Amino acid sequence: MTKQEARERIEKLKEEIRHHSYLYHVRDKIDISDAAWDSLKHELAELEKEYPDLVTPDSPTQRISGRPLEEFKKAPHSQPMLSLQDAFSEEEVKEWEGRIQKIIPSAKLDYFCELKMDGLAVSLIYEKGVFLRGATRGDGRIGEDVTQNLRTIQSIPLRLRLPEKKELKEIGFNEAEIKKIISTAEKGKIEIRGEAIMTGRVFEELNRKYKKEGKALLANPRNGAAGSIRQLDPKITAERQLDFFAYAFVTDLGQKRHEQEHEIVKTLGFKVAPQNRYCENIEEVIKFQKEIAEKREKFPFECDGMVIVVNENSLRGRLGVVGKAPRWMLAYKFAAAEATTIVEDIVVNIGRTGVLTPVAVLKPVSVAGVTIRHATLHNMDEIKRLGVKIGDTVIVRRAGDVIPEIVQVLPKLRTGKEKEFKMPRECPICGGKVIKNKNEVAWRCESRDCFAITRRQLMHFVSRQGMDIEGLGEKIIDQLLKEGLISEAPDIYDLEEGDLLPLERFAEKSAKNLIESIDKSRQAPLVKFLNALGILHVGEETAIDLANHFGDIEKIRKAEPEEINAIPNIGEVVAKSISGWFRDEKKEKMLNRLLKEIKLENPKPVRRKQILKGMTVVLTGELAGLTREQAKEAVRQRGGDVSSSVSAETDLVVVGNEPGSKFDKAKELGIKIIDEKEFLKMIK
Ligand code: IVH
Fold first, then answer.
1. Where are the alpha helices (DSSP H) in 502-637?
2. What are the residue numbers of the active site?
């Protein structure tokens, strides 16, 4: 991306994010998922990281929040209500710790980890033990006074509970501190912050009721909570049966660790998430996050990640605040099922019945924890429905065992360079005519063998004599073809783990293994590669002759038929077939794609005494000291040819253990026979 392109993209992203942010924060309306919105923010932040001079003060990365609603009384905060930096992967969490450690190298860091509940952040002020004022975050400095609404929440005490001395002692406070806490709770001012939420059960009950009554439904529990609190009529809030979980004790009463804040608020009569936990180091944090990620479906409330807090409060001052987010906290979010990315291309794949399926090739993107590169578009009708063009920014979703899909196009992010997709009129695989029956949605390739040929070529490409991709067998090739994930060899190198996971027979481990063995084949001997291409009349032997003669693929693809024909063992027909293959436009395209993915190892010119020059050698039986391949190679390097059957033309037969009928035939024809020992001596 050029700087100019980055500048344009940044402007478009800012506009789009601002638009959704306004709808969400100010109008309480949702039109794209949090995950998709986060994904856009992430892209913007990444671009701004690359081009720091393009960051403007009005960028949503500089301040992400809405304005307070006019209707509520303004509620200035004693200390700003900040936001959190996000992380989506283990690496990002470790990088965060790295940055902290750089600032305070001597500190031994431990953490307190909390559920990041998905509701609305509120601040509660108690004076002389009585609930005085409750406020939303607003813009962080000034919130909305929603006291009346918060008073309807049963788990927000209207009067603080007075802690017992014993309880505070157990938390680790000394006599003086205990006195101060109790007297402040009784006579002073205390501020507590936490999350007001709607449980999943209440959300469903309410929506059932609203549906019956023909009322508008709540979009999700979070919106249910946020919408109810920012309501002018407290009766409506009461009906919504919200809940409250505390996560911070703002008033400084001598607490040294964040962990203690959670303990204090409990003694004051608040609920805290029971899952919250102390973690001794970052490895424990990561382990804990994985545990929570698995269990969270069963929680009674929505939880979109974990908040990691540096436990030692005394470190906060030195760590400071970056933008609007404290450096001592991090939101480690769960991998979202949706993300935004770019449609780099739309290709078609041909199924068993000849149907052409359009598939979007995406800029690789991590969705729900794995990378995907393809999304099926099903057919032309679906492309029309989505209105998707090549070059578009789209929202993609990957849910469980379902093939990744494009859910929505973001047309505001278009640059004008997007291209409409047209169904090809010629089959991209076999060149056959593509037709559409009147009553059908599908387009088909007229040639009946198209699929069979493709399939056979792919099998040959991945086979042991070819690229030798372990684990990519017949059944899996069929599945990949069926889902439109591959239609020619280079497509194999575009596969990502997330493309495989939804397929039958695949689990995380097997998907990872297959991607690994594909990656292994990215480095391959020229001979194997030539054989894998499936050029008519080119088998292993001819591939070896070609590789040894030319030494590299570029020379082979440029060679004239006469030059190829001049190689001993290669006749006119074969030479023509080879040079014809390399001159075919479609094959050329495919070859270029392959060469971008695969690094070829050229054969080393071998200088051995040509003791077998001009001789035809047959191997039979099992050799103890050499594999069959090594034995063949040894013969070839010494000028000999290997043949699989004995005839009058055979010059030498090498016999190993338990030889077959070739041995008898050799004796019959009086051909020279040697055993393995002699053979080894000969090639030494
Ligand atoms: S700490 C910097 N702790 O997440 C202060 N926030 O993205 C942030 N949230 O506005 C507050 N659970 O609404 C904190 N255990 C938790 C939280 C939590 C949910 C929300 C909160 C905040 C937002 C920040």
1. 508-520, 526-532, 540-550, 553-558, 561-565, 572-583, 585-597, 628-637
2. 116
